[in-house]
Amino acid sequence: MLGARISVLVSGGGTNLQALLDAQRNGVLKGGKIVQVIASRGDAFALERARKANVRADVVEFRDCADSAEFERKILRLLEEERAEIVVLAGFMHILSEDFVRRYRGRMVNVHPSLIPSFCGKGFYGLKVHEAVLKAGVKVTGATAHIVDAVPDGGPILKQKAVEVLPGDTPQTLQRRVMEQAEWKILPEAVEELTLKLMGKEPPALPARRFEPILPDFGVRGNRYPGRGIILGCAPDGRAALAYFIMGRSPSSRARIFERSGDSLIIKLLDAAKKLDDPSLILYAPVRALNGQTIVTNGDQTDTVYNMMRAGGTFEEALRTREFEPDPPHCTPRISGLLLPDGRYRLNILKADSEQNCERQFFEYEPSAGYGRLIHTYEDNGNPLPSFSGEPRLVKLPEDIDEFANGLWDALDPDNKVSLYVRLIPPDGKFEDRLFNKYGEGK
What's the number of domains the chain is made of? Predict the structure, then answer.
């Protein structure tokens, strides 16, 4: 075989396609050959780029198909005609079904204009990504080339490249810089790696995530409503680290305070006489300790985990008995964490899928001095509130507890933050903590 046969799916101007064609001409992409371009629009300029390069150009108009199934059948027929071995999504504005992706499992590549797992998934495409980056106020963005699987932007990462966000950037200027400095460079490199693998000349094995962005300001500054959040990890001096915060939009959500109770943390209502339909959704013990392990959750599943582990069960077993909160239309996720004395930790999210079934996602991490993971209930403000998606975000943790606590409290949205608790735990278990309440005593 002279080289893997590459088909490219496009929808618009085809700048990423041009980067691939240029890489092929310049010898960067030499393990495969671009043999076909398929556009979902007949007026896509990418078709002209293909014809200029003497590459077969086909059109499958999405709007002319009865449904997505017919659209995919037509594309698959063209791919089979050209005997495509690798499929590249280069500005292809359609989410493909699991059945389609399965046909090219491990042989389909996409480039996304952010540093996954940030600003990715359903709803993040084109300028929307760069608008979200600027809204969040982050200082670094970039692009990611990854294998396509059934979860949008969820497949194994092949390449990532960071790009600085500059003062005065607009979504348009940032989009252009990300394309020029990242997308056009990493996409050809990723496709080349995949062709070498297909030809049996696989490059040295790399971890699934070669580079992960470290989110500034604990990953919450600029997010109007992350809801409730957990950070677990390891301080630079080796102490196990924990943070838990709550936000509030309604009067009952804001009329709460954190209060210490031995080595536990509890939530109390400022107005004790206030009637609540379901107190368990806002009044619970977020933090409890058991045999040197610390449990932290955003609901009464803290007690579910505590009781299960005390009886000899596991963190995972306990959470398989629970679901997301019964508060439609938001269906607030339940988030939970387990922190071990040596800094190892586990995180979990229970959230509703599109059919209102419960997704149970578990994550487990080894200690890494100075780093932790953030998970929160909502991606941002909205109605209904959109659930957190993707893997818990990587954040940097300071050694000084006041720098940690004050920095996180300052980064939370000033209008919606309610309470924050931070704890650092040395191996002997004699922890140090900080507590903030916006509407009551406690700092």
Answer: 2
In this structure, are 328 and 224 located in the same domain? Answer: yes
Q: How is the chain split among helix, strand and coil, in percent rounded to 5?
A: 25, 30, 45
- Express each pLDDT in 106-134 by its tens digit: 899 999 999 988 888 878 888 999 999 99
Reading the block at residue 79, the tokens are 């791919």
- The b-or-e profile of 259-281 (16+ CB within 10 A means b, else e) is beeeebbbbebeeeeeeeeeeeb
Q: For strands 157-164 and 229-234, give the pairing.
A: unpaired
Give the strand order in the sheet containing 86-89: 56-59, 32-39, 4-10, 86-89, 108-112, 140-147, 157-164
As beta bridge partners, residue 424 has 241, 432
Over residues 264-295, the pLDDT tens digits come to 999 998 864 455 555 656 689 999 999 999 99
Q: Residue 237 and residue 234: Cα distance in Å, rounded?
A: 8
User: What is the pTM (predicted TM-score) of this model?
Assistant: 0.56
Q: Are residues 399 and 269 part of one domain?
A: yes
The number of CA neighbours under 13 Å toward the Cβ of 71 is: 18
- Report the distance separating Cα 223 and Cα 18, nearest Å: 36
At 303 the three-state DSSP class reads helix
Q: Distance between CA atoms of 379 and 389, rounded to whole angstroms?
A: 7
Which alpha helices (H) appear in 33-183, and where do they start and end?
A: 46-52, 68-81, 98-103, 127-136, 171-178
Contacts of 260 (CB under 8 A, 6+ apart): 266, 433, 435
Mean pLDDT of 336-359: 91
Beta bridge partners of residue 432, listed in sequence order: 424
Confidence of residue 327 (pLDDT cuts 50, 70, 90): confident
List the domain range (segments joined by +) for residue 152.
4-198
Answer whether 243's CB lies under 8 Å from 422's CB: yes
Cβ-proximal residues to 199 (8 Å cutoff; 6+ apart), any chain: 1, 3, 4, 31
Distance, CA of 334 to CA of 299 (rounded, Å): 7
329 preceded by a cis bond (ω within 30 of 0): yes
- 203 within a domain of the structure (yes/no): no
Residues 26 and 100 placed together within one structural domain of the fold = yes
pLDDT tens readout for residues 34-91: 999 999 999 999 999 999 999 999 999 988 898 888 999 999 999 988 889 999 999 8
Q: Which residue has the tokens 């931070």?
A: 422
* Contact yes or no for 163/143 (Cβ under 8 A): yes
